[in-house]
Design brief:
The chain has 234 residues and is an alpha+beta fold. 21% of the residues lie in helices and 29% in strands. The chain is elongated and about 65 Å long.
């Protein structure tokens, strides 16, 4: 298999993260610096930063209800708390699938399974992700329809069509369910900014049919075999 896929399967990093490690010269195959596109056989000795990787794969899968105030990275150069700090003692080498920004919360999957991570995040698979969004004040049908059709959040970057349903509204705030099939950086907040609205609460509540049912804010649990099978076949 390709070297980036092998590294992802070992839980070293996502495929993109593995490509970066390879580019930085931190990966070797049989003592030779790896190149993008290299293949790995069962007999090959693969090392990352001098550490030999086993060819045995034991994936781990966690579901987290991420709270605000944590970043979705393995480490943070600014010294902020990361979602890794919430994992139980003894958790293996996993990484977050996709991201929720520092001020957002909700459903987050962490795993060492690079193939699953790729399946859930690659744009062409259009995996639906549902968010509970609250904005200040009210919003018009014209504004909602603009957002549903796709808006330009920066020069040349237009969001895909999405579903938005209002679930509660009054003079002070409006709550909505927003369903996206892509994951651009701070996409929802930037979308609403284009129609002059400020998002003051954002929570991912669903990936496909997987929800946070019974999981308190800041809590983590292992995914069940049924949930892993479901996500692997989305």
């Amino acid at each position: 298999m390709r070297i980036n896929k092998f590294l992802a399967e070992q839980g070293v990093a996502s495929r993109r993260g593995s490509d970066k490690l390879i580019e930085e010269g931190r990966v070797t195959i049989n003592g030779v610096r790896a190149k993008a596109g290299d293949s790995v056989e069962a007999s090959d000795v693969v090392q990352v930063d001098g550490k030999i990787l086993s060819h045995k794969v034991n994936y781990e899968y966690y579901l987290m209800n991420k709270p605000k105030g944590y970043v979705c990275t393995v480490s943070d150069e600014k010294g902020r708390k990361t979602v890794m700090d919430l994992l139980p003692a003894g958790a293996g080498r996993v990484f977050p699938v996709g991201r929720l920004d520092y001020d957002s919360e909700g459903l987050l999957i962490l795993t060492s399974d690079g193939d699953l991570a790729y399946r859930l995040t690659v744009p062409k698979n259009e995996i639906p992700k549902t968010y509970l969004v609250r904005i200040e004040g009210t919003i018009t049908d014209v504004q909602l329809n603009r957002l549903r059709a796709g808006v330009e959040i920066e020069k040349g970057v237009v969001t895909k069509k999405c579903k938005i349903n209002v679930v509660e509204t009054n003079k002070s705030y409006t709550k909505m369910h927003v369903v996206l099939t892509e994951g651009k950086n701070r996409e929802i907040r930037r979308m609403f900014e284009t129609v002059g609205k400020n998002v003051d609460f954002l929570k991912r509540i669903r990936i496909g049919d997987l929800t946070l049912s019974g999981l308190d804010r800041g809590s983590v649990r292992k995914l069940t075999k049924e949930e892993i099978f479901y996500l692997s076949n989305l």
